[in-house]
Amino acid sequence: MKSNALRIDSKDNVVIATRPIGKGDAVVMNGEAVCHAAEDVALGHKVALAPIRSGDAVVRYGEPIVQATRDIGPGEWVHVHNTQPIPGDLRE
Amino acid sequence: MEFTGYRREDGRFGVRNHVLVVSSVSCGNGVVEAIGRALPEVVTVTHAYGCGYGPSDLAVSHRVLSGLMNNPNVGAVLAIGLGCEALKAQSLATSVQGKPAEALEIQKEGGSAATIAKGVETATGLLKALNAQQRVSAPVSGLVVGLECGGSDALSGVTANPAVGAAADRFVAEGATVILGETTEMIGTAHILKRRCANPELGEQVERLVNGCEAQVRATLGPLAGMVITPGNIEGGLSSIAEKSLGCITKAGTTPIVELVDYACQPSKRGLVIMDTPGFDIDSMAGFAAGGAQLIVFTTGRGSIAGFPAVPVVKVASNSRTYNNMPGDMDVNAGSILEEDRTIDGVGREIFDLSLRVAGGERTCAEVNRSAPFGYLKQGPTF
């Protein structure tokens, strides 16, 4: 099966769409379907690989990048609509 | 592991053996260019500086030009000055250790034509002397590799930068030094970089550096400071400044940070080193080259063509479109991770292997194209 997603670090709980993924399509990593896309996901955007609870860190590059503002299920698009910067990361 | 390079008196190894012809002040640029036209084998370096600024910029100018002259890829130097400038050609030549370094002043030599004639004669002699030198076996642990990204796109942090990170880990595993720069592109990751430092004191220094850079960006850009993460970045899928900056620092791989050095200063340790350089590619690469980097690995999404004088730059495209659209400018296609199901580590291996072949003499696209822009960081006013 042709891959359409890439996990950058083994600790990551999101994968990156390496081509546009349509709603209902299998999210395929290393030739294996890992979940199904809950919505359309554009190239370069993030898809949850595992359940992410509200307040939990979204991990990419093996590091926390943002935190979920609501529960996010596998296959959901992860971006600014359901996450926020981790408080204290960047001084305002 | 080994490559073949040119052994220098200080024990470092050059991956090239260039005669460098440098102007100490921009007034000498025409003479330097004329010597370069007469002798295309020399590497010429011209710039817009050398006079009319304060002591701190003068010190940085000296450090950058002297550092580049002392870079192990340079086998001999000819510095060209005018005569009445602040940054003297003779003072630069005197700073060069363990290799031939000559200086000429245009006013003293009797004008442009006389200096060009004498410069061509001098450089011809230097070229002849270097031709007699042979490559010898050199340890990969003697390499210092600068890591740069420029003209990034939404895929830089997905393909090219992680692949360079995999290559960086291989270099460090071999005992080599890799330099991560571009402090502006570390904003938002101070806490992460701090944790990756080999000791707490270094962690504090790195945190202070990145937070200081953030404060400077805010002071300079005011309400535009938020533009460090742009609407375009968010459209591309980046959710926070931390995510964007992680996409940049992932070039450095996963090994501990062992040292922090100032702009254009030579690292004293082996392993992953941070250098305080600006985000602008050319000025940043000048810092690496002056710090002794013999090689630079440079990722690009949109398609930067910039090499650097005397230092081979390996170009890694983040996507196949740019790679195919600019044939002859890109050395590696990290876009193959997307289209050909290659792994990040596989492309990292390709970058590492190619870098060693380049160290041994294989020319990069930017070298073939003679694309070697030069500039460096200047911060104070010009008087």
Describe what is shown at a glance.
The complex is a heterodimer of chains A (92) and B (383). Chain A is an all-beta fold and 92 residues long. In chain A, 0% of the residues lie in helices and 35% in strands.
Kindly provide the radius of gyration of chain B, computed on alpha-carbon positions and rounded to a whole number of angstroms.
21 Å
Mean pLDDT across residues of chain B? 95
Beta fraction of the residues of chain A? 25-35%
Main beta sheet strand tally, sense and closure of chain A:
4 strands, antiparallel
Give the domain tally of chain B.
Answer: 2
The 3D shape of chain A can be described as globular
Count, helices of chain A = 0
Label the CATH architecture of chain A. Answer: Roll
Quaternary structure classification: heterodimer
What does this 3D model show about the protein?
- The complex is a heterodimer of chains A (92) and B (383).
- Chain A is mostly beta strands and 92 residues long.
- Chain A has strands at 5-6, 14-17, 26-29, 32-36, 46-48, 57-60, 63-68, 77-78, 83-84.
- In chain A, strand 3 (26-29) and strand 4 form a beta hairpin.
- Chain A starts with a strand and ends in an 8-residue tail after the last strand.
- With 383 residues, chain B is of the alpha/beta class.
- Chain B folds into two domains: 18-131, Response regulator (Rossmann fold), CATH 3.40.50.2300; 139-368.
- Chain B has 15 helices and 14 strands.
- The termini of chain B are far apart.
- The mean pLDDT of chain B is 95.
- Chain A binds chain B through residues 2-3, 6, 8, 16-19, 31, 42-46, 58, 60-66, 78-80, 83, 85-86, 89-91, and chain B through 154-155, 158, 162, 187-189, 191-192, 211, 214, 234, 236-237, 239-243, 246-247, 250, 254, 337-338, 341, 344.
